[in-house]
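cron nightly-structures :: item 1 of 1
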Amino acid sequence: MTRIMSLLLTTIPAGHGKALRLKAGQAVRLINTHGTQVVDCWAWNAHDLDEHMSMEASRVWSQRLNPIIGDSFVSTYRNPVLTLVEDTSPGIHDTFMAACDCHRYRRLGVAGYHRNCLDNMFEGLAEIGLTAPRPILASFNIFMNIAVQADGRSLKTAPTPGRAGDYISLRADMDCVVAFSACPQDIVPIQGGAANIPRDVHYGVIEDSFPAIPPSQPWVP
């Protein structure tokens, strides 16, 4: 761990995962230390791991494909779990793409084992003594650059436009567990700059609340 500007930071090594517990009102700040890294994110109700953050339900809630400050991510039970309260990045994040897993890398031609975000999710939780009830491919892909094309149907995958030191902060709206994976992807050019090499990122827990930004309300037609 290191301390920067009074925030105690934990390193998520390139290609690996970490998990942490947050109490309602705390926030986690995720720092794109080198500016080139995509980070997959999951969250669960700390008191019931069967309830987890859902990208599908969150898009219905916010009526947005990509979140902005003030948007909440809701659970499979439609309860706010995390709210985006700070974002110094270009604001490009993804809720579409599935987390990489061993099957994805086999399809990309990898022989043998390749580190992947889904395994990182399980490993991060195991480090803090927890087991996810099920795999969750629908992650919140922070700093990932997936754009809807002019035809309104097609998606374009491009490298992250993140800058060194960019960060986002996610406030807990319930007692929750959050897992991050510093994505190991080194075949598809989404991160790592020209070298396409995954890099470390850092996170720190913020004790101060963000009272000016309440959880967002569900969209109602």
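cron nightly-structures :: done
Residues 2-194 form one domain.
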